[in-house]
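Batch job 17 of 40 flagged for manual review because the log was empty.
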Amino acid sequence: MANPFHHLTTRIDRGRLPVDNDLNPRTLAITPEGYLTFAPGPGKQGVESEGNSSTDVLTAGETFTGEWELIKDYAIIKVFISSDQAGAIGGLIFQQSPDMVDIDNEVYEYTNSTPKLFTPNPVAKYFRILYTNGTADQTRFSLATIYSYVYAKPTSHRLGDRVTGNDDAELTKSVVAFRDENDDTYHNIGTQHAMPVDSGSIFAHNIWEDESVVTDWVDLDNIGEHVIVIPYTNLHTRIRNTTSDNPKTIITHFNRTVNAQQVGIGCTGGGDFSNVKLTLIGSGGVTRTLLDDSTNNTKYTSKNYEFPPQLFNALKMEFFTADTVTISNITIQKAIITESQIKGSQPDGNLIPIGATPSGNLKVSDAENGLAIAKGDVVGSTTIHKFGKAPDFDIVDGYVSMWDGASSLGLNAMLYTYSLTAIIDSLSSSSTGDTQLIEVQGLDVNYNLVIQTIALTGQTRVALTTSLIRVFRLKNVGSTDLAGDVFCFENTPLTAGVPIDETKCRASISIGNNQTLMAIYTVPAGYTAYMRVWFASLAGAKRVNVSNIRMFARPFGQVFQLKHDASINASGSSNMPHLYAEPKKFAEKTDIEIRCNTDENDAGVSGGFDLVLIEN
C-alpha cells in the first residue's frame, strides 16, 4: 500500500518542534501502519494522493486501478478528472473499505471531455479509485486526488450547467412560510396555502377573516384555523353546521376584488350538502350574479357552479335545508380574460395578422376551397371557369374543337388554329350598329395575361390596344345586347364585318350570347394551373348521337397530348362530369382544349373545365 503522506526530514532547531518541508513547526504522529506523519495543523488543507493520481494516458477500454490509502483522518476527498476522451459507462468507481477486503462501490461516469470535480465523503478506513477509459485512446489524461482536512463544497456547478446524475448533491429539507398581511402571522405553505401571487384559484391568504361570516359552523376536525379559511386550506379538513337553520349561511369576504367564473364545493371524509344558492356580491352589497339551486334536494359530495366571468368582493353561500351540512373544500376559479392577435407565417418568413369576419368568426382561407379563392381570400390564386360549345358539326368533320367556330352554319372552322406570334390584333362585328365595349382576355407576346376593353365600330375593323398571341375570351361589357356576331382575328380582309379567311379568326361571339363559348385556354406565364373538374354534354336540336370527348393539352414547345378520353350518348349518359381526386397540374404556357366527334350529322356538344391558377 502506498504511503499518502509526505516524506519527512526532522531536525531539532534551537529546541523547537520538528518542522515539515516548508519549515513550519508541526506535531509528529505515528499512523497505525507505522508511518511517521504530521498531525493536521495550521496552514495545511490536505495532501495529494500518490496511489490514486495519474497522468498516464489509457488506451480504449483500459482501466487505471489505484492503490488502497488510509483516509480516516480526512474530512473530504476531492477527485479531479480531465481527459480528451469520455470514460466507459459506469467507468468511474470510488471504492471504500474497512479492511481492503469488504468493499463498497460508488459508481459515477465521466461523460465528456470537460474537466470534472467529484467530492466523495470518506466513510471507511481505506479508499482507492478504479477508472476505465471509453472506446477511444486517450491523448491527455489527468487524475488528481486530494485528501482534505477541512470540508469543501461538492462538485463545482455553474448556473448554466445541466444537472446530471453524476453531480454530487447534498440533501436539504426546508419549510417555506408566508406572512398573512391581515394579522401579521406566518403560515407554512402546503397544498393549498399558495404563495401570495396571482394564480388560477382563490386561497386562504385571499380571505378577509374578520369580515367573513360563519355563524354556527364548527371546525369538525379540530384543525385550529379560523373556520372560514379551513375549506380553502385543505381538501380533507371539514366544517359542519348541525343546526336546523334554513338557510345555513357562509359569507366569504376577500382582501381584493376577485374575477372568477366558477365556484366548486366538495366534501371529503364524510358528510354532504344540498339546496345551494350562491350570490356574488360587489361593492356596496350589490348582487353581481345569482345562482339558485336551492330547490335541488340531491345530496352532493362534489359540485361545480359555473357562471360568466364576474367581478365581486364577497361570496354568499346559502344551504336551504334543515339537514346537517358538511363541506371540506371551496374552490373559486379565477377568470382569465385575454385578448390576442393571431399571426400567420408567410413563405418568406414574415408574420402577418389574421383577422376576423364581420360576424366574429376567425377569418381562415382554405386554398382548396373554391369560394375562398373566388372571394380573393387566397393571395396569388385565381379560379378560371372555361365553358364552350361546338354548335353544329357532322360526322365527316371528325374531332372538332369545342368553340363557337365549330359550326357548319357559321365560320366552319372545326379545329381551332393557334397563332405562332403575337399577331391577333383586330376586332369587328357583322352588324353595323354594334358599338359596344368588348372585353378581350388573352396573352401578349411574352404570354403575360392582358385584359383590354375595345369599343366596336360596327363592321369596320378596330385594332386592339395590345396585339396577342392567344385569346380565350370575349365578352360584351356594354349596356346593350349585340346585334351581330363579333370576331377577334389576325388582320385580314372582311366581308360585312366577317373575316374572309376563317382560319385567321381566334374568337367569336354568337348572336344572343354576349360572350364566347370556348373550352380552350392557355396558362399565363408565371402561373401553374390545376384542373379540378372537366365536363361535357350533348347539346343542340339533335341529341340522339354518340360523341367521344377528349381532353388535350400541349406543353410549351411540344405537341398536343391526350389527357382524358370519355364518351356520352343520348341512350346512356348525355352528361359527363369528371372530378379529379387530385387536381391535374399544367405548367405555364400550356394550351388546353376539349375536342369531340359524333356519329350523327348536325350534332352539338358542350363542355368545359375549372382551373385554379396559382402564382409561381
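Reviewer: the log was empty due to a logging misconfiguration, but the result itself is present. The two ends are 81 Å apart (CA to CA). Unflagging and moving on to job 18.
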